[in-house]
## 1
Amino acid sequence: MWIAIAVLVILVIGIILLYNGLVSSRLKVDNAWSQIDVQLQRRFDLIPNFVETVKGYMTHESETFEKITSLRTSWASSSSVGEKAKLDNELSGVLKTIMAVSENYPELKANSNFSELSEELRNTENKISFSRQFYNDSVTMYNSKLALFPSNIVASLFNFKPRDLFVVENDEARKNVKVDFNK
């Protein structure tokens, strides 16, 4: 009888530990996503100032500026990781285009406001990159716990669901922008 009670107590303690580990991992994923969200929002907040600085020099690039405005509007209404990842990829492409085109405007590059904003955007891009990596590492660890025995049993009992990785979905976003200084 005591052996049965001891086995039952050990089993309950094991389930509690596995459950708490899964909850902890899920919260870490949520925190990691929040960090990405904060950095992406920071970038979207910097963009209007950046666009206004660049507009005066690049008047023929109005389509690019309209695209940025559209992306900012879409960002505000999106909620899922997939939607935000897609918008982030699109915005990264547009920003790469602006940075590449700005090479053709020496007086823009000499503008201190443009330089400061460019540096802020570069720093933000670095933070976004780090946050994405941290998020994906957290998601991978969480999803692994959901798949591995014996935590997979506890995960299915308490309805834990896997999370999506933050991925670059288009091949264009993976390419470097070619900048030609011979123009």
## 2
Amino acid sequence: MSIIFNEDPNHYIITRYRAGVTQINENDLRDFIRQYRDTNISDFLVCVNAGQPFYKTVRMKSIIDRLSEWEADGRLAAVEKNDVVMCVKLLRDACDRGIDIFGIWLDEIRKCGMRAWVSVRMNDIHDAEDHDAFLPSDFVKAHSEYMRAFYRQPSIHPEYALDYSVAEVREQYLNLIEETLDTYDCDGIELDYMREPYCFAIGREQQGLKTMTKFVGQVFTLVKKSEKRRGHRIVTGVRVPSAPRDAMLLGLDVVEWLNRGYVDRLFVTPHWSGSDGNMPIDLWKSIISGRDIRLAAGLELLLDAYNRRGRKYNYIDAGSAIGFACAYDALGADDVYLFNYMDCINESELTGGNDVLSKRNYAYFLRTAGDSEKMINAPRRHVVTFFDTWIPGEPPRKPLPLRVSADEGATVYSALRIPTGVIPQGKEVSLCLGFEKGLSHGDDVNVYAACRRCRLIGSVSTPYHAYDDLDYYAYEIENDGDLPTVFIAEIGALRGTATVHWAEIDVK
């Protein structure tokens, strides 16, 4: 197992701009990559676009061209405090001095012994609601009729995504992919369908299946042409929703892409608002059995049990991230894929001191995740989370909150599925549950895990980044060295009603 790492198109320039950097030089760019040299990263993906390309293009307008236009129009003075806009000055200045940031990175990635990829976001819609925003392309701004909700006013963010049933949309992305392959010599190209997975008009996803399969076939042809020109193999990876059926319901027939040989690497991931601890990696593994395809399980940087407090940015901690990776290793993932796990040069921007990006945790995490033995023996958390990809017509999938009630004196049990991976004998294992404050006590419920009664240890402090308005109780899980890699935790009320808002298995 190893790490697949995704670096987004503007993280470097925006973080360095905020830190006061006024000019980018080649040595700093190479040093940025060198920090990952002695980690478990085997494949480093450089994302080259958001709504617009972030490199100096020939066939289409780039974010650099947009900056120059706004400067000529006198629009920059009004956005001089907008980091997203102003940081592009660093990119433009580098290009004007002959410094190709992505090209230097790809070269250094190889020198550091990693495979160098480019990643293309297939439907990025950052700020698409705002017609005057900086990030959306002229193509998007000029063609509201190409949006998924073309027939009415969009009401939520995903409805601003482009509809791939429109030939002009497909042509736009084929041009971007072809120019990217012409510009950069890479070992692999990723089609990132999780920015965004909403590629067809609402209710037209089924009709879009063959259309998107044909499109991926066209990309495959472009890749093969680039292989001949470059004289070496270029693998193709796709980042897609976490379950085969969910991908199908969004118009992405990933299984057919695999059957036709269009895809070499499969990256299944959450959307963005939290890591998913229950992706069907074992099912994907069965689907690709016998084929020369590597499967990676994706982790996001955020952690939440469910969307309880509205939109927020709580960074995952190293123990939880290692926990997810360890669980997916046991379920058959060949690699772990990291999205938004980019370096942090200003720790004051972080939401807590125990997160995975802090200086004390970042290197440790990148040297532990992807190493099966280290993950198994590391302290880790296995937090119950939710499915965050919106599927039209499907109810939200979230195991929490879980409400249990005593039924006329009888205890009725409800269950939570918690993948953990291998737990060696001798490790302390406990289940932590969070109940509504003041309404339930730890001994108001019976708890079983892996067919064994769990002993109440007592009340515990609020786990890192859990909800601070709950009462938490820990229950001991007997560890005789024969624990499963996927737990079913059963919870039943002995009296009244209890509602569980947070659940995790801790391994120490």
## 3
Amino acid sequence: METIKDNTIDRIDRNILRLLSLDGRMSVTDLADKVGLSKSPCQVRLKRLQADGYILGFRAVLNDAKLGRNHVAFTEVKLETTTERALDAFNKAVLAIPEIEQCHLIAGSFDYLLKVRTKDINVYRQVLGEQISTLPHVAHTSTFVAMQSVKETGLED
């Protein structure tokens, strides 16, 4: 059995990660076939990738259009102050808004970039006005509406 030292990953591990990012329900047998290993060594690698934190978990990819959540807006947020206390308060409060799909602290002319998913622009406007704008230390926001999603996943070909 091949071992990998120093918590590094090789070409086969990267291929496993890429394939699972495309189909997290792929059987170990199919995964092993695609990466050129037998089932047991592939399973060992898969367990190690999970144990070492390269794979955090598996989840279903939902059809947001069918769920009535196909409006995506990106919201720039500028805070009044960027003290650790202000950042911490904002970080904690943003977790309570389910329409905020992603929140990133940014180095640039604004402080946070939010990905917000709602039913339509009217619902987005309500979320922005009643929830996002009232988050701790928000000075102002700016919105960019997505017209089409070209790529949303990570390790594709």
